[in-house]
Each structure stands twice: as C-alpha cells, then as structure tokens.
Amino acid sequence: MIHGIPGFESLTRLEHATTALSIIGSLWMCYICSRVPGSKTVTLKLICAIAISDFFYSVANYFSRFVARDMPMKIKMEATIRHSSFLLSILFSACIATVTYKSSVPFGGFNQRQFYRRVIIIGPLICICMTIILPAIFPDDIRYDFGPIYCQIISININKTVRIMFYMIYEGLPVIIGFVSTFVQYILAIREVKQLPKPVLDSMGFNIYRLLLYPCVLILSFVPCIIDDLTNLLGDVTDQRLDIRFMRILISNSVGFINAILYGIQRKLYKMDDEVEYNDEESVSRGSSSRYIRSESLKAALVEANEDY
Fold first, then answer.
1. 3-state SS of 36-67?
2. Could you give the CA distance from residue 22 to residue 81 in angstroms, rounded to a whole number?
3. What is the Cα–Cα distance from 60 to 152, expressed in whole angstroms?
4. Domains defined for the chain, CATH in brackets
5. pLDDT value for 201
6. Exposed (0-12), middle (13-18) or buried (19+): which is 238, by Cβ within 10 Å?
7. Is 138 helix (H, G, I), strand (E, B) or coil?
8. How far is CA 295 from CA 118, 196, 276, 301, in A?
9. What is the pLDDT of residue 107?
C-alpha cells in the first residue's frame, strides 16, 4: 500500500511493476555498457553512471515500503540514497550533454577524460554531502521523513514560503540547473553540427534534431516527481491529486527503464566523442583542416547511428 493513500491497490501494483522495470532496465544498461568492445568512451562511462544511479534510486524506492516511522536510521539511509541518486542521474545526463557539445566545437581543447574523472568523484561527494549536511545544519527546517510514497527529505517549516525556499536549495535549484544546462548544450551542439559543409549534412541522412530527445525525456521523466513533491510540500497528504501521483509512479519510477531504452538504442551516436578529442589535438598542427576532419568523423558517427532506427 502506498503510504498515506489507503485503498488504492491498483496504484500499489503499478508501483511494484514500474520499480521492477526500472531495476531491470538499469541492470540491462550496465550489461550493455560492459559488453561494448574496445576502449570505453567517456560518454559510455557516463551512460553507465546514469544506469547505476537509476538502479540505486529504484532500489531505494522499493525498500522504502519496508520502513516504518519508528525506524529513523533506515528512513535516513533510504532518503539519503534515494535523493543522492536522483540528483546524480540528472547530473550525469547534463555531463553527457556537455561532452556532446564540447565534442562538436572546433579548437575547443576539451579534455574529456579529465572532465570525467572530476565529475565521477566530485559529483557524488557533493550530492551525498548536500543530502546529509542540510538536515544537520537546519534540523528545525529540513528532516528525513516517512513520506506519502517513499522515505524522503522534506522541509517542515510552518511557513510555506520558507518551506519552498529550502526545497529549492536541496532539490529545486539543482534540478532546474540540470534541466536547463542539458537542454541548452544540446541546442548548442546542434548549432555547431549545422555549420558543417552542406554536402556533409546532406549525405548524413540523419536528423540532428533527434538530439533534443535526450533533454526532453529527462525533463518528462522527472517533472511528475517534482510536481508531486511540491504538492505534498504545500498541502495535506489526503488532498493529493491522484492523477499527479499516477504520473509519478508510471513515469518517474520507470526512469531506469526509460533511460535504458533511450541510451541503449542510440548509443552508437556517442562513439564520436573519442574521435573528436583526437582531432582536437591534431587541430593544433593542421589549423583550418580541423573543421574538415571533424566533419568526416561526425558524418561517420551519425550515419552509423542512423542505422539503429
């Protein structure tokens, strides 16, 4: 039974199904990433990081049903894992957008592997520390709670404005920054690719605007979760709208499965990142020919990706 919403067995069954799909999808994506032959590109490693984050997010969702209000340590552990993995999934999605954009920019001098090493270490530390430190600094305003569906971090200040302010600190602003960053960088990547010579673009046979599918799916996956958290924050549990709760369980709970389909089907597109990094190094000595080299590597990668459709 979903906490705080008695009698809705159908929602509970849907929750079980979507959580299981998310766990299976995350494990499947990790398996696919491990089976890709040759050296693993930076983007492939980030896709695997998303899958791992989605796995922990889904597992935390699942085990929340076995937690009771008289288990404060379990509530804290489940809420920490769930919230940290939620933020990490968005962070790594934004990092893939960064690599895609930087790979399309000539003379960028972007070191992808150094960027990956920093993100894979600093990102989890920031997300976990923020999840643990904020409730410790503001114990009267933020706490770990046994929420209407899952264990979660929630603002408990009696003033609604203050509650929203704290919510923006521990979840709202990081999510908004991640969404905007991902969307903008894919648009910039599309703009760079469209500057390729017209014969190259014509011969690709690939709709570059498909890149916008990634930020759109990211936003659609987590918006129901954000809306549901806000309505829960501002109202009473018994006043929750079932349509919002249904969309959250159906879409946000399935994020591991959705990402597995999204990145699993189109993963060949990201073979271009290592090629472009090599071409950036050659651009120092070859000057303007870097644009042509980049055109050829992008063309080859995008034509290969088009075979997936």
1. CCCCCCHHHHHHHHHHHHHHHHHHHHHHHHHC
2. 16
3. 10
4. 9-303 (1.20.1070.10)
5. 66
6. exposed
7. coil
8. 29, 6, 10, 10
9. 61
